[in-house]
Every structure is written in structure tokens, then in C-alpha cells.
Amino acid sequence: MKPATPAPGTTPDQPRARFVVPVLAFCGVVVAVMQTLVVPLLPHVPELTGASTGAAGWLVTVTLLTGAVFTPVLGRVGDMYGKRRVLLASLGVLTLGSVLCAVSSDIGVLIAGRALQGAALAVIPLGISIIRDELPAERVLPSIALMSSTLGIGAAVGLPLAAVVTENFDWHTMFWASAALGLIDLALVLWIVPESAVRSPGRFDVPGTLGLAGVLVGVLLAITQGSGWGWTSPPTLGVLGASVLLALLWGRYELRTSSPIVDLRVSARPAVLLTNVAALLIGFAFYANSLVTAQLVQEPTSTGYGLGASIVVSGLCLLPGGLAMVALSPVSARISAAYGPRTALGLAAVVMALGYVVRFFTSHSLWLIVAGATVVACGTAIAYSALPALVMRAVPVSETASANGLNTLMRSVGQAGCSAVVTAVLAHLTFVTAGRTAPTLHAYLLIFLIAAGAALAALAATLLLPSDRPGRDAPRGGGRAGGTVTVSPPTSAARGNA
Fold first, then answer.
1. What pLDDT, in 10s, does the model give residues 115-128?
2. Which residue in 402, 410, 399, 392 sits closest to 458, CA to CA?
3. Does the N-terminal or the C-terminal CB of the chain have fewer CB atoms within 10 Å?
4. Which phi and psi angles does 334 have, rounded to 5°?
């Protein structure tokens, strides 16, 4: 008897297929590590490169800017021209940026290299979209939970690894290592990950892309540079005002074009809009945990609350949280499958708020600081797993990458806002001890309260979401094992005729 011929749109079960999710998750972790790679190095950049402190800060700021611009844009390009193709291009850009940083000590070259690394953040929404296209329905939720959590896992793992390299090796080593990881990612994707047949028709929206880039750069510049420029200074207010005006013009254009870079009608649906608001708030609450923990434990004992820990020890404080995020990804998927992703996101917000309550009362003990940071990380893992599930049940399959790119963008904007708030609080609540100016303990406690407030605000946004309907609104797999792609929400064409 002849073997059965696979149905159209499917492929025979191959041994390599089981490695698609691990490969995509590894790519996500590598990209997320790149975002935090230079944080332990920042205090030493001026002496290593001869640059000013302000210029050194751009090694972090520029990744936020390019990541914010390219994540939704490359998500849309992937939907239109092939997600695997764009994924490979993003990894190639990351590798090139790593090599630029590895071969130079010039601050201009380093900033350019970091800009290229930031652009690779689109790997995460592209990976989520490939998973939705390629896997059968029963594997989609746990797989996207893991893929989405890589953003937090990489940040938690990247800080201690970068700290170890900074203290024990030439600082260029970490960029050579990231370039090697980028090459490994490229090879694995070429070998393992298939190209999706799902495409979104239309032409690429060049004016909309340029407008979106201008809006995002303006807003993020004002947020990240506001503390240095002055929040009420002409440059800050001027950039913000220009960004608002450009946003209005851009929105008007996007509503009128037939193939927008961001479908504002879909984005305005309560299910999508409130999910993105929650993503921004969750990103804010998550990033406070990463920013504050390392600095708090490194404060000298002369402050009365600091532990005088080394860079390596401070980085290792976040490692248990990263491991917890890996372990909780499948748990979050089961919560979403059983009770709906809305319930999972609400639970995550509560856990994050409770974690900051723990941190508020336990800031003098290293182990209790680690415990509080890990509780926040656990909430982050559940939230980051639930967010793409909420997005995907509200958008057509053909817009998965661009919609998740926008959601990832909102997390990045939340992180940028958190960085600005943390910087402002620590700079304004200070005292002099042992001949140096240091933040007061109350500054750190205030940050914990603000972060807990952001988590509770995310809970409020979650409660306003349409109710969960498990089994009906779950993201559907489409791909090679499932035979066809099912689109539950209306297509773009249908929306246009409505």
C-alpha cells in the first residue's frame, strides 16, 4: 500500500519540527540579552572610550529607539513578505551590530552597533507569529508563552552574564560572544524553521512607516532625555509637541490608506487597545525590578541600607527570577487554556503588585531582596505569556506579527518610561554620606510603590477587557500539522466592507 500523501498545506512529521519552538525561544533570549548587555559596563564607558557620561547613556537609549521603531515595522514586513525571511534579516542585523561593537572603542561606532542590536527586537513577535502559523492548536498557547517570556528571561540572565564578563575579561569579549550567538541563531533558523505560507496582501506603507518612526523617536527622546534636558524645558516640550502633532497627521493618513503599517481600526478595538495599555504598564512594572535591584544591593554600607555587593553579585540577584520565568511559562499557558488569558493577566498583575509589597518591607536583607525580585519575575512570566494570547484572539491570522510587534513596542515604551521615572526619583531624593551623594532608602521605596501602582493599573485595564471564553477565542494553530489556517476575527477586506 502506498503511503498517504500529505494534505495540501501540510508536511510530513519531521524530526526537526520538534525543535522549531526551542530554536525560536533561543533566538528570543539572545535578542533580549542584547538589550541589557551594556548595563554593567555603563559606569566604566567614559574611561574606556573617552566619551562623556551623556554619550555613554546613548548605548542604552539608542536600543530603545531602534527597537521601538523596527519592532512593529518588521512585524508588518514579515506578515507581508515572509516571517522567516525577516527573522533571518533581523538576526543578521544583530550579528553585524555585535561585530561593530566588538572591533571598536569609538563611542560613535558603539552607538551605531547598539542601534543595530536594538532593531533585532522584532525577532520576538516574528517568532510568536511563526508559532501560530506552524503549530497545531494544542501547542500554540504553551509555545507562545515561552516565546513571549524570553523578553524577561533574557533580561534577567543577561545582567549577571555581562557582569561576569565585565569583571573578568576585556569588555569587547561580550560583543564577540553576542556575535557568535547571532551566527548560531542564523544557522539554526536556516536549518530548522520553515517559512510560513500565510501572507497579508497589500503594498508596504512607506509614508506611514516614516511617520510612525518620527512619532516614536520623538516620544522616546522626550522620555529618555527629559531628566537631563529638564521636564519643562523648551527642548523637551518642543519634541513632545512636535510628536503629538505628527501623531495626529500620521493617524489621519493611516485611517485613509488601504494598507496601513498599523491598522488603527483593529488597534482601537477594546480587546486590542486595553491589552496594549496593560502591556505598557506591565513593561513599566517589570523594568523597575531589573533597574533597581542591582543598584540597591551595590549601594555602600555607609548609606545605612546598602549591602556593598559587587557587580556580579548584584546581577546574580536577578538570576532566580529568570529561572522562575522559564519554569512558569508552561504554567501560565495552562492557566490561559483553562481560565482564559484575561484571567492569567489579572493574576499576573496581582502577583507583581504583591512582589513589590514584599520588596517595600524587605530592603535590608540580600535573600529577601532576591525573594521579592523573584516574586515580581513570576508575575512578569505569567503576564508576558498571556499578552500575546490576548492579542492573537483579537486580530486576524494575517496580522499576527504586526499586532504582536505593536504589543512588544508598548512593553518597550513602558520600560523607557520606567527608566525615566527611576532616574528622576533616584536623582532627586538623595543625601550625602561618606563624602558622596547617594539615593535615600525612601527613593527606592517610592519606586517600589510606583511600580506596584503600575501593576494595579494593569489589573484595572485587564478587568475592562471583554470576558474570556475558553475554547472559543484561543489562538488557533494553522500550520503544517493542522492543515489549514483558521481566521476567527474578520479579515482586513471584511473590515473595509463593514
1. 999 888 889 888 88
2. 410
3. N
4. -70, -35
